[in-house]
Amino acid sequence: MSTRTAVVTGASSGIGEATARELAKQGYHVYVGARRLDRLRALADEIGGTALELDVTSDESVRAFADAVENANILVNNAGGAKGLATVADADLDDWRWMWETNVLGTLRITKALLPKLIASGDGLIVTITSVAAFHAYDNGSGYTSAKHAQAVLHRTLRGELLGRPVRLTEIAPGAVETEFSLVRFDGDADRASAVYQGIDPLVAQDIAEIVAFVANRPPHVNLDQIIVKPRDQADPGRFARRS
Ligand SMILES: NC(=O)c1ccc[n+]([C@@H]2O[C@H](COP(=O)([O-])OP(=O)(O)OC[C@H]3O[C@@H](n4cnc5c(N)ncnc54)[C@H](OP(=O)(O)O)[C@@H]3O)[C@@H](O)[C@H]2O)c1
């Protein structure tokens, strides 16, 4: 039997990096994509995968990436993130553009490009990492919550449109995971980023990676549609039990 292959976007850090490692451990050949190629190369060397530069906001980059992927059983739509925390009244249009381009149109571009290969595999799986922000609106978060809602609707729509095709679709919606996410959101402000996780036991990237691997290892007739996963210390996006 030929080696099964997986594609992980946003694999240069956090959830994507851990997921690539976990899928490689399960025997998949993993194509890892992101903009920071140096990090991807080190990861690909470690796991015996293939590093490919990818900017999900660029049609050209996605086309070149998809052409270089020979076949795909699994696509993990993970590239994404947030920029800023601002009220609607103070919304920064450039931050909104970044969030919509990366989370929504990025997921659309890469999914469209790889769909023929996923279908042709005869046993495909699309995992999209949305967020609890795809289920809730919260103050100062509308750029991110609206983008994650839209990304989720894209994914959920595909679940119906692909009925009868050999592709499973799973949405994983995490709460707080300690990665570079908050560092990106707060433009490199490490103090502000670490305050997000202060006094709680957040999820770590490996927690999500193991869930992706569990999903991937279900038999082809089993579709886990949605998985919402939060730290025990978190009830909703803005509701935490903090010890300090
Ligand atoms: N951490 C959380 O609390 C949390 C909770 C719920 C959902 N999520 C979602 O989980 C996903 C992964 O986030 P994370 O927590 O692992 O954060 P992270 O450590 O910041 O990782 C984000 C990844 O996305 C990649 N990326 C960003 N823009 C990209 C672009 N234009 N093209 C290709 N790759 C791009 C980054 O790589 P490069 O910069 O090298 O391109 C990086 O590998 C995101 O979709 C995020 O919204 C995170």
TrEMBL record:
InterPro entries of this UniProt entry?
NAD(P)-bd_dom_sf, SDR_fam
> What keyword terms does UniProt attach to this protein?
Oxidoreductase
SUPFAM superfamilies the record matches: NAD(P)-binding Rossmann-fold domains (SSF51735)
Task: Select a single GO molecular function from the record's annotations and give it.
Answer: oxidoreductase activity, acting on the CH-OH group of donors, NAD or NADP as acceptor
Transmembrane regions = none
UniProt key word Ribosomal protein: no
Q: Answer whether the UniProt record assigns the keyword DNA-binding to this protein.
A: no
Q: Which family does it belong to?
A: Belongs to the short-chain dehydrogenases/reductases (SDR) family.
Against PANTHER family, the record matches this protein to:
ALCOHOL DEHYDROGENASE (PTHR42901)
Q: What is this protein called?
A: Serine 3-dehydrogenase
Which species does the entry assign this protein to? Nocardia jinanensis
